[in-house]
Amino acid sequence: MSARENRICGGAGPVRLRGFAWVMARFGKKTEKYLAGYKTRLFSGLSGTVLEIGPGAGANLKHLPRTGVHWTGVEPNPFMRQHLEKEAAQVGIEADLRLGTGESLPADNATIDAVISTLVLCSVVDQDRVLQEVLRVLKPGGRFLFIEHVAARRGTWLRRIQGFLRPLWSRMGDGCHPDRETRAALERAGFASVEIEEFDAPIPVVRPHIAGTAVKSAA
Known about the structure:
globular; 7 strands; seven-stranded mixed sheet; 7 helices
């Protein structure tokens, strides 16, 4: 196993992976309460081929249109499958879930209309590589739709707390980094345009969030 593979999901073994999947499936409703409005606005107009990175237990599926979308999910935690397939059946969406990571998306160049990521870029092993993969698979003019928690501003007490808690937070949270500068990564990735809305979530350590759309050049 490579060093990168050993860091996927924070290096969690089967017991922790299974436990994390169970927790996400049963206690994700609090997260949905403050993200639902953003998801509805971002995802309601989707159509065509949609690829979601790290869909987890399928919390985003109910926000997608019921018709006109061919959805594929790429998930590193194999124990999420049973929960996601149950959610997909309940909302009436055909789900094509594949085991994998954002650093190596299972799609050909320029074949995807939209890529989705919600609370995922905090935990991938190589964030810049994931964003380059997103650009690779998107069609010209395709959209990357994201909702992510981000690092607090440098010099603030919250940023110091995030850095202090990072080792334990990452281990307990499937590789999540509370102090990732995801906004900066998006802005330097090479998208033709990036529109970002900032908002605060009711979770003290990871309060700063962003939501928005990054568009691949049409040329």
